[in-house]
Amino acid sequence: MEIQDLKNSADAKLAHIATFSGELARIQAAAEEEIARIRESLAPAVQYCEDAIAGTEKELIALMKKNKAILFDGIDQVALENGILLYGKEPKVTIPKDAVDMIEAQGWEDGLKRSVTANREAIGKWPAERLAVIGAVRKEKETYTYELTAERG
């Protein structure tokens, strides 16, 4: 094959690729527009479902909190037909409002965020002795969650 024939063949392939690349870009753009229209048309239904889930989750957590002694009498999970109710405790540090002054006086910069507020995340990791100096207390915080048995259509 001569050099010009090779160049012509390669150029034809480049033209073919360019044609299909342009067509692909047009198809993808049309698909994105269609997807955006579908999302927009379904947005109210999606919002309705999200609101219903959030409201019902809030009601479920309130039900579990209010009836903790009955539902979780010495246990941390309750198996139900549609899922499992879970009860637990996790450590939570309560920090007094005047802790910032005490933290600064001790020179514990990791306990401060420089908008000068207490760094709750860092303080939560401190040992009890250090917490006591600033008047903070580590307590257990009750948690309520759930797991669904299976997805429903």
Description:
There is one protein chain. By secondary structure, the protein is of the alpha+beta class. A 3-stranded antiparallel sheet has the order 1-2-5. It has a two-stranded antiparallel sheet with strand order 3-4. It is 57% helix and 21% strand. The chain has helices spanning 3-66, 68-71, 99-106, 120-123, 128-134, and strands at 77-80, 83-94, 112-113, 117-118, 137-148. It has 2 domains: 1-66; 72-148, no CATH class. The chain is built from 5 helices and 5 strands, in the order ααββαββααβ. The radius of gyration is 30 Å and the shape is elongated. It starts with a helix and ends in a 5-residue tail after the last strand. Strand 1 and strand 2 (83-94) form a beta hairpin.
Structural class: alpha+beta
Domain count, please report it.
2
Q: Are there runs of 5+ residues with pLDDT below 50, and where?
A: none
Strand order of the largest sheet: 1-2-5
- In DSSP terms (H or I, runs of 4 or more residues), the helix count works out at 5
Query: What is the H/E order?
Result: HHEEHEEHHE
Q: What's the N-to-C terminus distance?
A: 62 Å
